[in-house]
């Protein structure tokens, strides 16, 4: 099947769809027989360029291990089910992005009708939300988040399972009305809406018996000062992408990198000498010494690095904790430097 064999109207429709639309062989490479223009925009290669460099092998763009995917494909064909996968790909610039892949099998030609969509932003938001919820649910404190009208939009595990909280109420005002000591709840909420952090106590009774006593802190959520607030989200996002490109350029074939959340990146170097890793980190720090012009604005960017080596008995969590402690020391000492974990 080739592009020229398609009706012109069909080709026009395909090329105006904001998703990659492909027709691929059912082989280990998912060799592309047809792809719309949007697919080539996603990967950054011209059609002829991709054919020459990769022989139209779609699988060559996939970063993740395709072996389990191929096994799953056979199972789906046997069961007569459509495919539905999420995995990572790379584009011509070497940037990694997530895609959602859905496909329907064509048994007559032993091929697949495929649609792919870039879901990188959605995956990043989902990961950061899950990470935040993990932290909140493992805190010993009860945490309740509400809108300005006091409508509750989130409770962590401690708050949701609190035996003396009325689980049926939908607002902070209803939850704490009649339980605040000394102060007026209306005054507390009014001052908080003006941006003032409020501290107060609540007591709960049942049948005249005290069943709960809390010391509370009501904190207005406001934007912190940072790149996105000063220069805008586009500038902040471009700095993140620029940093990712710098870090990716240092990787070996067995190394791994991921955005750990916000402006933090996590890199796992495999079988590399500590001296080489320090040199690479210094290189990144040195590139930040000269101001970068982004969107017509000159911005001075600094980096901080924390490095930890795996010791005997270290698992992923303990190694990550060591690196995090090292990064904390770097930031505490003025940033724009490197600290190597040495036991403290």
How does this structure look, described?
With 344 residues, this protein is of the alpha+beta class. Helix content is 36%, strand content 25%. It contains twelve helices and 15 strands. The strands form six sheets. It has a five-stranded antiparallel sheet with strand order 2-1-5-4-3, sandwiched between helices. It is globular and about 80 Å long. The N and C termini lie far apart (63 Å). It holds the Pfam family PAS_3.
Unreliable sequence segments: none
Order of helices and strands: HEEHHHEEEHEEHHHEEHHEEHEEEHE
Radius of gyration: 27 Å
Give me the oligomer status. single chain
Number of helices: 12
Distance between the termini: 63 Å
- Backbone structural class: alpha+beta
Physical arrangement of strands within the biggest beta sheet: 2-1-5-4-3
Strand content: 25-35%
Number of strands: 15
Biggest pleated sheet: 5 strands, antiparallel
Q: What's the helical proportion of residues?
A: 25-40%
Shape: globular
Average per-residue pLDDT, rounded, comes to: 85
